[in-house]
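Here is one chain, start to finish.
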Amino acid sequence: MEKTSMRSPLGKVRGLGSARKGVSHWWLQRLTAMGLIPLVIYMVISLVSAMGGDYINAVAWLQSPINATVMLLLLGAGFFHATLGAQVIIEDYVSNENRRLLALVAVKLAMTGLAALSLFSVLSVALS
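Its structure:
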């Protein structure tokens, strides 16, 4: 027996759901994940090559415009990606609507605050 669908053929092609957002959230997660791959590889290689250095070498490393930019991009994309992932988990597993809304607001506020603190910290070291 064939399942009947309430979606129009055009809606199936476009991938639009009832919220009319389609797969944008899914794509954002994939794009941030793909963007994080080269950033993490660069940071791991840079940090492994700087192992054994002291505080002054670490500050000098972060004051390099390339390293500071990569660190800022890594933090921004990382926190955004983590926020998207936490949102999906909360939406999937928290059934009470009020708790879900509270959890979503708390996660977004916490991630935004931690991202701002991290970005400020990197900028304060990089521009000192």
